[in-house]
Amino acid sequence: MSTIPVNGMVHHQTTLELEPNDLFDYSKRSQWLRAAVLGATDGLVSTASLMMGIGAIKKDIKAMILIGFAGLVAGACSMAIGEFVSVYSQLDVEVAQMKRDFNRRDDVEAEVDGLPNPWQAAAASALAFSLGAMVPLLAASFIQPYKVRIIVVGAAVTMALAIFGWLGAALGRAPAIKSSIRVVVGGWIAMAITFGLTKLIGTKGLH
């Protein structure tokens, strides 16, 4: 609280004291945080959905593990290639802009360290996807009974989705509960749709 004299009268002015953490710009984390959280969540949901889908028509544990592993490899490669192409396009745009700025003004210094790295982005996306995909794979790998395996996979995926949602919100200083609920519900919907449609086509559509 501070006082300011105005025309002989004293007016009180309230000043906000910011905590050290509040001075940090959390939007700077948005790019890598978004890529990491989305990559892990995609790996988790897509792999679990594939495993649930094949589990709807085939109770063999080998089939479920194989389809999950194939989804992990294909998804990680797809994420890496997509992120590489996207970031490389961004790099080309930024380099071209730097060249134009340099040609207009001789005193412009190129900030090469701040340029995006396509290889780093591709590796991070592939790793994040793989880590997420490993959750349902590990949950199903050592459980032979079909019903127990489905329940365990569903529980493991739900817990991991809640953690991913909370982690993304916590690092970005966003509401954690809403984020976790949103991610969990989205994952459930994806798995339910995949399980239901595969069950429908497998039992009726292929006869």
From TrEMBL:
Keyword Transmembrane (UniProt): yes
Keyword field: Ion transport, Iron, Iron transport, Membrane, Transmembrane, Transmembrane helix, Transport, Vacuole
Cellular location(s): Vacuole membrane
Membrane topology type: Multi-pass membrane protein
Keyword Transmembrane (UniProt): yes
Highest taxon in the source lineage: Eukaryota
GO cellular component: vacuolar membrane
Reactions listed under catalytic activity: Fe(2+)(in) = Fe(2+)(out)
Principal subcellular localization: membrane
TM stretches of this protein: 32-51, 63-81, 121-143, 150-169, 181-201
GO MF entry, a single one: iron ion transmembrane transporter activity
GO BP, sorted A to Z: intracellular manganese ion homeostasis
A Pfam family annotated for this UniProt entry: VIT1
Coiled coil ranges: none
The family this protein is said to belong to: Belongs to the CCC1 family.
Record-linked PANTHER family: FE(2+)/MN(2+) TRANSPORTER PCL1
Protein role: Vacuolar Fe(2+) uptake transporter.
Protein name: Vacuolar iron transporter
Lineage: Eukaryota, Viridiplantae, Streptophyta, Embryophyta, Tracheophyta
